[in-house]
């Protein structure tokens, strides 16, 4: 009895999950002609805009369907003839006559006589259990008309029971799910699973890239075992990850509705499909149901010099390398601009790295260009490895060259050059070398190696790395400079530190040089204030009174570290961090400003500007700190821009150079980087299931000018550093459906200009000396525009444009309260003539 009950429930379940009376596919009646009304519509607009105001067009027609042949041995094997008639092209939304580009034009004039005739030639489908086994059409027809027919033919493919299937249609081989309820079938196609030839590329970093979401649903209503109506809708939504309010959507709709059933032609006799097709028309050939790619023309060919490099094609690379002569020092400015454009390339090729490696092996007149070249090679290695290209021959060769030459290098300048390349490449196999140079060397070399290790993801920082960093910080083997020790501490605290590692760092505060005491204390407080990952462990350690007491946490000094938010938004947020470390005599050792952008899944190191100085105590007859007695006088600036380390700039090197520049100083800042950077570079071709092909392009460029300077006044015993970041950003997006006879689309643009200044002023006439840090952003113009358009090859065009311009208020970013109090003292005690430097 129980067995019978279970069997009965299974039968009921099977019945309810299939169309009544059928378990395979739809079936046509013999000698009948099914007359349908068909329409295919495309819409292009902003993501949240109403379709009633979108740009687009509609192709409508009558469609005749009749059964040609049924397999005598299998009723579910059918040949069906489909004919498109009376084609019309019109606006997808009603427009006044003056704005209707199709007004007064016949379909033949819009599409063209040849294309219209091709579109109205019949196609034949072999349907086996509801699936298209063969698609028959005429050869040498225009690709566009064939794809329109493929889009219509794909609608006739369905199954009459619930479940999933891997189906081939115009979109490719796709995962498809069917939900069946009585005489209604819903087909959901997972477009991201479709296997089809894809054309396009995206940006290297996810934050600078474009996200795409695609959906497809088709609803069938059946009557008398065949189709009564079909409604299909396909949506593509494209969003800028950095500003999800900006984007585009492309919507494709298809409708097929049965109007009447009439007497039709009889069946063709035959046992084999091939013989039936030959009898019908020997010109028919079996063709793939998957869409045929349409060759697209260059839409926005580069027209400026910088864009030649950003075009990232073999032809553009060959042209620019032929133009630039690296043996000629007089063109070094252009050479450097080209190299940085390569470093910021969104999708670099193996050929680009191979070409630069060959240039590096050859003669280069300017040593700074040589240094820039190998640093950029490091950036390209990382980008290619991130795209699973680490085993490409050019990547293997470039890695081998940098690692082998580093180990053979004798001069400090060469060692530093290869270390900077590794700082960009971030190769796991380079970590042992970086550890060796960080622990055993001194000065800039040790510092570059340590900061290179700081850029690695914490997952690469093994037990050996952390042990070495602990030895450096606690000086277990040798005395190290403050800059290297504080970098080692930062690596430890940012890589899931253990309880004892944090405790030992906290216990060291109080035993360090004066300003390092204050700096480390400020770093710990910043971890707690900003809720960094290690804050939980730090709080646990602070419960121990030996680590957390007044004596340890009341150390005097002017060094500091502080982090805060620039913006916090639903899409992305950006943070800044400012830290500044002084020597015991009040002279700057290092100021470090970082800006990071992140979302829920990715992070981008947008910029870092570091100003470093050493060996300047002799200027004011002060005593150097421990471990820094033998350092040469030096000051310089280093920058990271969009995850790419740039070539550092030297203000002065050696005491003689220092004196010369002090007495000839103009106070003008020194430029670190200036030029155009391609941030967002996204292009995708999208095959719509109705037949047309859409495209989406987003380009984002940045004009940037980063400069910095360092000034001293011996008379007023005051120093000042100034880092100025001037940027102008432009983003343009274009979503378009190009059907050869009509184009419809939407362009969106964003423009913003701003300047971010970081100024630190130090008065070292007393101790603790007075330090004021300021971070300001000026008023920023912000403009955005949206243009929707429809156009014919004849030049007739409809355009709708709207935009908004506004002025974003300037802002002085708040640092910690102690800094605010210090700034009041600095600017309250400065005399009116204190700006008279030297």
TrEMBL record:
Primary localisation category: endoplasmic reticulum
Protein name: Microsomal triglyceride transfer protein large subunit
GO MF term list: lipid transfer activity
Domain of life of the native organism: Eukaryota
Matching InterPro entries: Lipid_transp_b-sht_shell (IPR015819), Lipovitellin_superhlx_dom (IPR011030), MTP_lip-bd (IPR045811), MTTP (IPR039988), Vitellinogen_b-sht_N (IPR015816), Vitellogenin_N (IPR001747)
Record keywords, A-Z: Disulfide bond, Endoplasmic reticulum, Lipid transport, Signal, Transport
Compartment(s) where it occurs, according to its Swiss-Prot or TrEMBL record: Endoplasmic reticulum
